[in-house]
Every structure is written in C-alpha cells, then in structure tokens.
Fold this sequence. Notes:
Helix content: 40-55%
Strand order of the largest sheet: 1-2-3-4-5-6-7-8
CATH superfamily: Aldolase class I
Order of helices and strands: EHEHEHEHEHHEHEHEHHHH
CATH architecture: Alpha-Beta Barrel
Largest sheet: 8 strands, parallel, barrel
Strand content: 5-15%
Shape: globular
CATH topology: TIM Barrel
Number of helices: 12
Number of domains: 1
Amino acid sequence: MSAFLRGTGVALATPFNNDGSIDYNGVESLVEFCINGGVEYLVVLGTTAESVTLSKEEKKKLVKHIVQINNKRLPLVIGIGGNNTAAILQEMKDTDTSDFDAILSVVPMYNKPTQEGIYQHYKMINDQSPLPVLLYNVPSRTGTNMTSDTTLKLAQLDKIVGIKEATGDFTQVLRILKDKPKDFLVISGDDALALPLVTAGGDGVISVIGQGYPKEFSEMIRLGLSGNATEAFQILYKLLPVLDYAFEEGNPAGIKNILKNKGVCDDNVRLPLVSASESLSNKIEDFIKNN
C-alpha cells in the first residue's frame, strides 16, 4: 500500500520573492528540478517548507500550485502536524487530501508530552486520518524523543505505515528495524545517515539535500536499496561537504542557497530565519563549481 514511500522523497522548500511573498515560478522550477532528477515522491508543507510561517491561505494556494505542477507524475505527501491534537484533527478535515497519498505528522513540539501522551496523540490521528500516516521523530526540533518502544507500539495501528526518523541516535533506529512489523517503513530524516539506514534494512529517506542534488541523491539511495553499498557510499562521500553546508546555518537557509547557486530559485527566507551568510554562500558556490 505504501511501497511508493521507498526510495527518495524530498521535503520541498518554499521559494520566496524579495518582498517575502511566495515565488510561484520558483515553486514550479523546484518541483520540475526534483521530478526531472528522478526522486520517488514529494513532501509538501514539511519543516523545510517554513510551514510555520505560512498562513492558512498561503498553504492552500501553495498546495494547489504544487498539485497542478506535479500533475500526478509523482506521489505526494502532505505535512499536517503540531502540538494541538484537536487542531490537527480539524486541519485534516479542512484540507483537501484527494491528491495526496500520505500524511507526515511530527511529534508534538514545545509542550513536551510523555510517551503515553505521544501515543494517544497519534492514536487520535490514526483513528481520524483519511490517509496513511507517517510518524516524524525529530527531537532536535521538538524537544522530545519518541522512543523505539512507542514507535513499535504505534506501528501496530492500521493507518500508521512508517516513520521518518531524525533522532540522530542510530542505535534507536536499529531497535526499530529489528522489531518492526514487516510492512512498517523506516525512513531516514537525516541526510547523512540515510545510506547507513538503508543498508541496515531501512526503506529510504525524506531528504533536504535531495532537492539540490536529486539525481545524485536518489541514485545513491537506489544503489543502497539494491545492495550496491560500495558504489552508493562513493556518492555519499562526494556529497558529504555540501551536506554539512546545507545545515551549517540551519534549514532551509543552506538548501535555499544551494538552489540559488544552481539557478533553481532564490534563497530568501522568512524571519526569524535569515539567509545564508556570505562565507557559507562562498563555500557552497565553490563546491558546486568544482563538483
């Protein structure tokens, strides 16, 4: 049912104009760049999209625009998450999900629920979601780690089809891989650990850097999934410097600068984020010129 989530998905950034409005031409350029680069699916309104700074109206327009550009060429995943369970349930009802294949929902941030609270939160989402649900564990952003035990408990629910794991704790990932149900997907949310996760038995990645290097990154993951680890790691090692640059000053400032240097879209972000510094921009420019 959710086999399309194997391979490389990209968490799309939201291009902005100099005045802070959404750059819809840039959105089209980015989507086409990713599709032509060979990624397996697109993730809309994730953290990389600066979704917390988008109004409800902007989200609707952006989603509609991406759906039209994609034109059913690739599967689509939509981010619907937050720290108010009731508001998420309402947003799922209010959102037209007919063109989407799954929902990505992050562990609640800021109010730091217990493991039981996290479980009950996702159980409510499971019970009311119109689509398959991917869990998203990213303690560096949420302040709370969802343990492997909680993940494996949630994996028993019918709509929960997998997890995007960005814990940075590879031992935790291995515990999930060891004991997960057969069809439960384990997807990396950490670009640098995506290939090791795949070679350990995982299913792929939802990537940030993948939209800057869609051809290389998706090929690397495909090689990893097919057992060609040596060849896959050669690609990873070549990309390793720019992986660091992408996150050196936070996401999506880094990836947007990469996209600017590649002529895909501009690198404007919304406060409280700021664009990449001149020194980082120079490093990115040098890497792109020489690789």
